[in-house]
Amino acid sequence: MADQHVSRVTRQLSRRSVFEVLLHQSPISRADLSKVTGLSKQTTSEVIDGFEQQGIVRPSGRTSGNVGRTAVLYEISPEGGYVLGVDLGGTKLTVAIADISARVLAGATELTHPDGGRAVLEQIAAVAHRLARDVNTHPSRIRSIVVGVPGIVNPKSESVELAPNVAGLEQTDVVAVLSAALGGPVMIENDVNLALLGEIWHGCAQNAANVAFMALGTGIGMGLAVNGVLVRGENGGAGEIACLPLGGDPSRPEVRHQGCLEYEAGAAGIVRRYRAAGGGAVDGVRAIFERAEQGEETAARIVADTATLVAQAAASVVAVVEPRLIVLGGSIGTRPGFAALIVEELARISLRPVEIRCSALGNRAGVVGALAVAVSRLHEDLFGIDERPAALVLPAPSITSSEAGARSSS
User: Fold this and answer.
1) CATH number among 1.10.10.10, 3.10.450.50, 1.10.260.30, 2.60.120.10, domain 2-76
2) Beta strands of 157-264 (E only): which ranges?
3) Which parts of 29-92 fold into alpha helices (H)?
4) For the domain 80-196+364-409, what is the CATH superfamily, name and number?
5) d(Cα 150, Cα 153) in Å, to the nearest integer?
6) pLDDT, the chain, mean
7) Are 238 and 232 in contact (CB under 8 A)?
8) Is the pLDDT of residue 255 over 80?
9) What letter does residue 103 receive in the DSSP assignment?
C-alpha cells in the first residue's frame, strides 16, 4: 500500500512538473521538457502522451533544424478545461472566461438584475452560457467557477451574509443554484478579497506577502493577506472595516446596521455630510470631488475630512497587522488626488510607515481575482498533491482581442 502511494505521488509530481513548465515555456519539445524538469525522457513522454489523451496539450509545430533532427513542439490546449470568473456588484455584473493556461478569452459587463436573489444568479448563468458559445465550447467544459459577492461569505456554511447591495442574496443558496445551472463546481468569495488577489496576481501588489486592499465606494471593505495567506476570520468577516467606530456614534441603529465608517465615509455618507455642511444640490459623490478639484471650499473640506477618516482606518490596520502595502480601490479610493490626502494624514498619525498605491486593475480587479482563484483551483484538481500544497505559479493573464473589445465597450 505504501509503495502504491509513493508511486501515485511520484506520477502526480511528474505531471505537475511537466505542466508547470508548459505553462511558462511552451511551445517546447519533449527533449527540452526532460532537460528542464529533470525527468527521464521515458517519463516525460508518458506524461505528454497522457496529456494528449486528456486534451490538456496539443502539438503546435516542429523545431527547425537539419533533416531528420526536428522535434514536435507542444503547448497547452484550451480543450483541457475552461474557468469562469464572476464579479457581482450592486450595480454591475462582470463575467469572464479563461482557458486552463489563464488566457482570458471573452468577457462581458452588464447591469445587475434589479430583482436580485435568484434572478441575479440566473443572469450569471445566462452570461456564462453566452460566453461559452462565444469561445465555441460547451458550458460543461467550464470546470471551475468562482463568484465574487458583495457580502461576507461564511467559510463554514458557504452562505452569504450582510449583502445589502444585492437584494435576496442572503436568502438564496448561491452555490447550489449556480452549480445546478452551470453544471460545475462553484466557489463564492467576498468581492474585495478577490480584488486583493487580482492585484497580487497581476496588479500593483505582485510579490507583496503582507498587503491590504481597501475598497472605497458605495460601500467600504477590505481584503487582507498576511504572510501570503488570505485572512478570512472565524466566520468570514475579517476585513470588515466598514464597522470601525470612526467618525460618528456606532451605537445609533442606522449606523450600527451599515457600519460607522461606511456610514460616514461611504458615498452616501459623503453626500449627506456635504449637504449638512451647506453644500449645494448634487446628484452623487463624483460631483463633490469635482467641485473640490475646482476649489469649492465646502467640497474640499468634506473630501479632506473623508481622507482623514480613511487614514484613521488605515492606521488601525497598520497597528494590528503592519502590511507593507495598502492598495486603494473603488470609485472613491481611486479618485485623482485622494490617495495623496490619505498619505499625508497617515504620515501624521501612524508610527509605522506603509506604502499606499491606487489599484492598477481598477474595476477589473474583482473579476481578475476570481479568474486567478478559478484557474488555481482547476490546476489543483488536476495536479494537486497533499504532500505539496503550494499552488502552481500562474502566468500573467493574456487577453485575446475579443475579450479586450468586450472590456473596452463595457
Assistant:
1) 1.10.10.10
2) 159-161, 186-190, 211-216, 220-226, 229-230
3) 30-37, 41-54
4) ATPase, nucleotide binding domain (3.30.420.40)
5) 9
6) 88
7) yes
8) yes
9) -
Grid coordinates given for 34: 526532460
Residues 6+ apart with CB under 8 A from 197: 223, 230, 369, 372, 373
Which residue in 235, 234, 213, 215 sits closest to 224, CA to CA? 213
Q: Cβ distance 241 to 222 under 8 Å?
A: yes
Q: And the C-alpha cell for 209?
A: 506577502
DSSP-derived pairing of the beta strands 142-149 and 152-154: unpaired
Q: What torsion, rounded to 10 degrees, do the Cα atoms 331, 104, 223, 357 define?
A: -60
Please report, in angstroms and rounded to a whole number, the separation of the first and last CA atoms in the chain: 55
* Residue 257, Cβ density class (10 Å: 0-12 exposed, 13-18 middle, ≥19 buried): exposed
Look up residue 203 and give its amino acid.
Answer: G
Nearest residue to 89 via CA among 185, 15, 13, 192: 192
Measure Cα distances from 403 to 54, 97, 108, 125, 370 in Å: 26, 9, 8, 18, 16
Q: What is the mean pLDDT of residues 198-221?
A: 94
**Alpha-carbon distances of 297 from 40, 231, 286, 321, rounded to whole Å:** 72, 40, 16, 36
- Cα(301)–Cα(143) distance, rounded to whole angstroms? 51
- pLDDT tens digits for range 70-86: 789 999 887 788 999 99
Helix (H, G, I), strand (E, B) or coil at 95: strand
